[in-house]
Amino acid sequence: MSVLVVGSVALDSVETPFGKADDVLGGSATFFSASASHLTQVSVVGVVGNDYPVAQLDQLKKRGVDFSGLEQADGPSFRWRGRYSHDLNSAETLETHLGVFSHFSPKIPEKLRSSPYVFLANIDPRLQLDVLEQVKDPKLVACDTMNFWIQSRRPELLKLLERVDLVTLNDGEARQLTEKSNLVQAAQWILSRGPKHVLIKKGEHGAFMFTRDSVFFAPAFPLESVFDPTGAGDSFAGGFIGYIAKTGDLSEANMRRAVVHGSVMGSFAVEKFSIERLMTVTKAEIDQRVKQLRRLVTFEEELPA
Amino acid sequence: MSVLVVGSVALDSVETPFGKADDVLGGSATFFSASASHLTQVSVVGVVGNDYPVAQLDQLKKRGVDFSGLEQADGPSFRWRGRYSHDLNSAETLETHLGVFSHFSPKIPEKLRSSPYVFLANIDPRLQLDVLEQVKDPKLVACDTMNFWIQSRRPELLKLLERVDLVTLNDGEARQLTEKSNLVQAAQWILSRGPKHVLIKKGEHGAFMFTRDSVFFAPAFPLESVFDPTGAGDSFAGGFIGYIAKTGDLSEANMRRAVVHGSVMGSFAVEKFSIERLMTVTKAEIDQRVKQLRRLVTFEEELPA
What we know:
The structure is a homodimer. By secondary structure, the first copy, chain A, is α/β, with parallel strands linked by helices. Chain A is built from 11 helices and 13 strands. The first copy, chain A, has helices at residues 28-36, 58-62, 125-134, 147-152, 154-161, 171-178, 183-191, 232-247, 252-269, 276-280, 283-297; strands at residues 3-6, 10-16, 19-26, 42-49, 66-73, 79-84, 91-97, 117-120, 140-144, 166-170, 197-201, 207-210, 215-218. Chain A starts with a strand and ends in an 8-residue tail after the last helix. Chains A and B meet through helix 7, strand 13, helix 9 and helix 11 of A and helix 7, strand 13, helix 9 and helix 11 of B.
């Protein structure tokens, strides 16, 4: 079944110890859809400026991504410039120009309002709530957020938590939101506000999925070289939600497989700049990495008889 | 089969956001033996001063730990004072007094020289090499180390690597030793120097075990509250080596179970000050946490038929 993602479609300029890329495809909805397109059909709602190289989105359209909900507005596109130092752990933001994104007001096209799976990528919680007013009875709504909104839009974010099924956020954001340094306690706090699932992403240290009565952990795939971490979290979300949408199965066992697909898609995203690697990865490569991730954590409790 | 550990037996004074403890049992050999004693018989070689509350070691002796190799020397015992801030991630060392430990020269009693399993805890690599001259044909020798020795005793440490089967160290130490920020590359570098296994501990983020042709990952057990992280790494090593010694099985499958036992014993160690929790934990509690850790990471690749 199909996924609707509402988020940013941007241009990134990135410096890492291994190279430099200017004005390449970026933004949460871009990484999310590039990743999820390997698993299911995705529709993007977002906005770009009249300077956006829309022809470059053709590679995503060829993968079945629907951009009928992408507005083109008068003004410059959302641009982000960042730099990673040697350990690649965190980006230093050098410039952020919101451009037309600062006036973004998501309008969900009629035919997308019945999307069964909805991912509210990292945008103003007021807009995330606004999207919820427009969609009709989705099977699952997931949202992401970031430190900026946790600080500046806390009441709206808490309201949003009451209305989503699933939250994805990173460990720092979970701690900031809940004011709890312990992640188990932070997850419980979030679950008590409404969501049935909380996915806490820890970057190279893997991800936890918490429900009220279970916890699952998937490591990050141990890569011999990480090229550019930009978009890893959104690619994770794309693999995760994409797998749920593909299978339509919200059982615990299937959600665990979904987390693993998130981890695997995130691991491909960081192997090249922008969505480059996500555009070439094959189903066989994805399946192989899922198998490798399973071998990575598998042990038997007792000696075989 | 039995394990010989050579390391520090100290007195720790610790402040955490949850409390304060003064002059409690600490040191690498103490945590290691408290942990390993749940799995196998352990003998300690170390040194304490004439001020050491040796009667407090009775709780370990009752658990079968052999202190016949513990010297008592004239002078003050090794004392460490540290403080953890709210996130508990790293200790701030307030005071270190090596005392009699600064002149420690391990003498392995004759009856312990044939110990099949040997753990060289974090001491001067010159002393670790010296212990290797004294032991006779062990089945497995493992060593730990720390930033101080990596910096000040690099040639001796590299010589040691050629002579041990297994190295345990934390991620920061692995990066410092190998000058590689990527852990997969760091592990390969270490393996190329001699050891067949490298265990890279990442604290709350779990641990990797690398061999030349495999990699295994065990998460840290997700605790709702961590009380005092002191000794977690040595308790991990005690659970790991203790399990190997108990089973006498160096197969990949069994080494994986050993890593999991390390993770589980580390998780108990941090629930109270000093070795308190390790003194009360039961076999049933250990086995249950092993099962829980397995559930934490288990997923099936495909939908069950």
